[in-house]
Amino acid sequence: MNVKIELKSGYTQGYLPKGINYKNYTMLVAIANYSTNKSCCGNAHTMIHEIASLKRKEDILSGFGGFMTAICRGTFADAWNRADGSNREALIKGLTNNEIEL
User: Fold this and answer.
1) Cys bridge to 20: 13, 16, 92, 95, which one at CB 3.0-4.6 A?
2) Under 8 Å between Cβ of 84 and 47
3) Regions of the chain with pLDDT less than 50
4) What is the pTM of this model?
């Protein structure tokens, strides 16, 4: 089991690619912490981890499908509508734990 990622109250410029705001960051953390979809969970971890360069994160973001693009650049409703069962459960858990900012 992965160690739970602690939600930051903010982050520095250059931590995430342009277009990803704090609300998107909170959804990324929920997917990283609670999704059993290994692909989405792994991508969320890479986007959050500080050891991955901004260039690497931008490259990964450009190849995302609909759900992960919605997580990173869309709204909660966009992400919800594109989520599979595991990712919906992760979003619900993030909401229930008051970890997702809407």
Assistant:
1) 16
2) no
3) 1
4) 0.93
